[in-house]
Amino acid sequence: MVSSAHPLASAVGLDVMKNGGNAIDAAIATHFALAVVYPQAGNIGGGGFAVIRMNDGTISSLDFREKAPALAHREMYLNADGQLDNLLSTHGHMATGVPGAVDGMFALHQKYGTLPMAELIEPSIKMAQRGYAITPLAAELLNTKQEEFQTHNRWSTPYHSDQNWQAGDTITQPDLAQTLEHIQTNGRNGFYEGIVADQIVAEMQSGNGLISYADLKNYQSVWRKPIIGNYRGHQIISMAPPSSGGIALIQLLQGTEGYPIADWGHNSTKTIHLMAELEKRVYADRATYLGDPDFVDIPVNQLLDSLYNQQRYADISFDKATPSELVSAGEIPSSESPETTHLSVVDADGNAVAITTTLNSSFGNKVMVKGAGFFLNNEMDDFSSKPGVPNQFGLIGGDANAIAPHKRMLSSMTPTIVTKNGKLKMVVGTPGGSTIITSVYQTLLNVIDFDMGMQEAVHAKKVHHQWYPDEIRVETDALTGSVETDLEQLGHQLRMTDKIGRMDCILVLPDGRLEGGADPRGDNTALGY
Ligand code: DON
């Protein structure tokens, strides 16, 4: 089964498995297909993370996160008065980190692939050449982005339109098809060197961008040891730094395990109060301690230590909310030496892969590389550009996540695999910026504690707290009126929001069949055979 953000991309992945490919082959093909039919987040100009569990129980995870260019520096987004210029870190050429996605797909393929890479890229080339019909949601989104596309591009991209886009309109992408062909013929060097590198560097030079030939050539994805934890008899396998997802998720689950939330009820006052109190503390730790492990010493073992977390949560009161200003990062004695997309795949042999990948904002920095036909990320905004000043997701941070040349920016992406008694149980993940961690957390609770099926768990309304701003974000209709009033009486501020997350998940049912969970908040589709 493949669950991804777009029906055409899920179909590409499914075909790969029908033709004898494994889950990783299917995930790679789906990733390239998303770069064609889901350009707001599917990408070759961005980066991400993959968590893998093969059916023999071996686990691994790949970091293909973007890196700061060599010319990046700590104060690059501050103006003359020392104020942060959010526009520079989110829009246009300067916002872009060195893309990791293409290198990541080749690294995955080298370790696990069984079909030739050329075969996995081929369907995407065809879709880029022949065109694809856009969905109603895509038309709506594209119509809101026209002005930004015009502001940030010197030419008319295939996504420009003078009239409103309509559902069913066809978009062809000849430049992108050619770029994919370069990659198909020349492997990872087809992107990081040669004509595509020329096009990227020329694009950078046209708009104060910093990415150089050397930045591209030297980019390397990194195999990292997955973060592992336990929750009510389940093993949780998730992403290590530079994603904060795995550590934060395990911290939240540790804080939840001591409480009978199934008895309290899904989205009940007490359950949400507990989640919000845990989240404030976990996001405070995130802001203080987490960053690129190649640059900062992250106290991973302490943050995952059950005694540390027990003490950390000891001041949680069930009578009132703790104001965020009274919450700070836990004390660790000494330091140990808007748009993303997720796809989940399980093959017939039980191999599983979870990939979350992103351009950061919807369509990244809005710049399409001229001649090469793909959008660039604006991942640099995930750094903490000024201590204590929020980024586009309202997240704050400090030294651990400050900008430095070649450094990877901290992420919230949380591709996660769950096993029980040594057997695969769930593959989970979602976009949503800072809400990714808490969406994955709630989805695990929905299945494990609230006994929901996969689709129901994905569908269920979500809530979110991230320490600052001091508010619980509540999806429309998530809570009954009385739960809202009760939470306010406990001292929580509530802020209503339209949609949280776009999950793509797979659950292994007790009889071995697979249940997909594809988020109705988007065009997400799970297909199996
Ligand atoms: O890595 C991160 O945490 C962010 N760049 C993810 C962005 C995101 O999920 C936007 N999607 N809605």
Protein model, in words:
Helix content is 36%, strand content 16%. The chain contains 18 helices and 18 strands. The protein has helices spanning 7-18, 23-37, 86-90, 101-112, 117-130, 136-152, 174-186, 189-192, 194-205, 213-218, 245-257, 261-264, 269-289, 300-303, 306-312, 435-448, 454-459, 481-489, and strands spanning 2-4, 47-53, 59-64, 132-133, 170-171, 222-224, 227-231, 234-238, 339-346, 352-360, 416-420, 423-428, 463-464, 472-475, 494-497, 504-508, 514-518, 525-527. The strands form 4 sheets. Strands 6-3-2-10-9-1-18 form a 7-stranded antiparallel β-sheet, with helices on one face. A 6-stranded antiparallel β-sheet has the order 7-8-11-12-16-17. Helix 5 (117-130) runs antiparallel to helix 7. The chain binds 6-diazenyl-5-OXO-L-norleucine (DON). 6-diazenyl-5-OXO-L-norleucine is lined by residues 338-340, 358, 360, 379, 382, 411-413, 431-433, 436.
Question: Which SSEs are present, and which pair or pack?
Answer:
Elements: E1 2-4, H1 7-18, H2 23-37, E2 47-53, E3 59-64, H3 86-90, H4 101-112, H5 117-130, E4 132-133, H6 136-152, E5 170-171, H7 174-186, H8 189-192, H9 194-205, H10 213-218, E6 222-224, E7 227-231, E8 234-238, H11 245-257, H12 261-264, H13 269-289, H14 300-303, H15 306-312, E9 339-346, E10 352-360, E11 416-420, E12 423-428, H16 435-448, H17 454-459, E13 463-464, E14 472-475, H18 481-489, E15 494-497, E16 504-508, E17 514-518, E18 525-527
Parallel strand pairs: 14-15
Antiparallel strand pairs: 1-9, 1-18, 2-3, 2-10, 3-6, 4-5, 7-8, 8-11, 9-10, 11-12, 12-16, 13-14, 16-17
The structure holds 6-diazenyl-5-OXO-L-norleucine (DON).
